[in-house]
Specification:
There is one protein chain. The chain is mainly β. The protein has one domain: Sandwich (Immunoglobulin-like). Helices cover about 10% and strands about 45% of the residues. It is built from 1 helix and 8 strands. The strands form 2 sheets. It has a 4-stranded antiparallel β-sheet, with no helix packed on it. The protein has a 4-stranded antiparallel β-sheet with strand order 5-4-7-8, with helices on one face. A hairpin with a 2-residue loop joins strand 2 and strand 3. The longest helix has 20 residues.
């Protein structure tokens, strides 16, 4: 059973990484439906980085990476990762345009659950945000944010 779980987790990470390579980030979409899913959008800088460098720039806030996508039924998600005093600051956001919805969310770091909880959409925008800090491990960190509400699934991945 452990081997099957380990294989499934490795396969899920490989699929997520393959999706990022083709610009595919989002809600369980395949390469064939990549055009329906949000794309990477470094907040600033990044034009001079080599291909595959997700860090978006050279320093400060230029190192922030932002990914966005659709969850279904008009809801959208945003995942931001940036350095913060030797750690990584992670922000996951869901915007459903409906206040009062309760979403279950999970934050994963390199495949392991880093935190989970529930958020309720508020305000006119009908959104909620999760902000956490994780250890910046050696090499590439894979951060995944997933939120679920009544069959709607929002899922974003950033390799940092």
């Amino acid at each position: 059973m452990t081997t099957t779980r380990s294989f499934a987790r490795s396969l899920a990470v490989a699929v997520a990484l393959a999706g990022l390579t083709t610009g595919l980030v989002g809600t369980g979409a395949t390469a064939a439906s990549a055009h329906q899913v949000g794309a990477a959008a470094p907040r600033s800088g990044g034009d001079d980085d080599p291909a595959g460098d997700d860090h978006g720039g050279h320093g400060g806030d230029d190192d922030e990476v932002v990914r966005t996508g659709r969850c279904g039924a008009g809801a959208t998600w945003k995942l931001k990762v940036k350095p913060d005093d030797g750690r990584l600051e992670v922000e996951g956001e869901v915007d459903s345009n409906v206040a009062g919805q309760r979403w279950r969310w999970t934050l994963r770091h390199n495949g392991s659950v880093s935190d989970r909880g529930a958020g309720t959409t508020t305000g006119r925008s009908g959104s909620f945000e999760v902000e956490r800090t994780v250890v910046d491990l050696a090499g590439t960190d894979t951060i995944a944010f997933r939120a679920v509400h009544r069959g709607k699934v929002c899922r974003g991945v950033v390799n940092y």
